Amino acid sequence: MGRQRREKLLRRRVRDVITAVAWYRREQWTRLREISRDWVELEKTYDEWEAAALGALERLRARGVEPQRVDIDVEELARWCQAEGRYVDGAARSEFAAIKLRQRNEMH
């Protein structure tokens, strides 16, 4: 297969990717920072986080990825992490969002 054809297929695959983006609630932002092991890496305020998250959505779209906002209840996230024996951190938050997106898509 030629290089151009491989690149075209790769671009098509990237375009077909759907990415879960955890979307937090303003009223739960402080709680998320309290329970997160990597709290120092999180923005200090919800407004700072929201601005960064909106920028990330735009960058994903520019790369041809279809980001899907996934509403995250922080207490549900905490219970899931506890049941899984995991810390609340970036990897756990991402995986939880992906699971919630998959569940949402299965229902539709």
Explain the overall architecture:
The chain has five helices and two strands; from the N terminus they run αβααβαα. By secondary structure, the chain is mainly alpha-helical. The chain has one domain (3-107). Strands 1-2 form a two-stranded parallel ribbon. The protein is globular. The mean pLDDT is 90.
How is this structure best summarized?
It is built from 5 helices and 2 strands; from the N terminus they run H-E-H-H-E-H-H. By secondary structure, the chain is mainly α. The chain has one domain.
Keywords:
single chain, 108 residues, mainly alpha, two-stranded parallel sheet, 5 helices
Q: Secondary structure elements and their pairing?
A:
Blueprint: H1 3-15, E1 18-23, H2 29-35, H3 46-62, E2 66-71, H4 74-84, H5 90-107
Parallel strand pairs: 1-2
SSE pattern, N- to C-terminal: HEHHEHH
Largest sheet: 2 strands, parallel
Q: Number of DSSP helices?
A: 5
Backbone shape: globular
Q: What is the count of structural domains?
A: 1
What distance separates the N and C termini? 37 Å
Compute the CA-based radius of gyration.
16 Å
Residues in helix, %: 55-70%
Which structural class matches the secondary elements?
A: mainly alpha
Number of E strands: 2
Percent of sequence in beta strands: 5-15%
Walk across the major sheet and give the strand order: 1-2
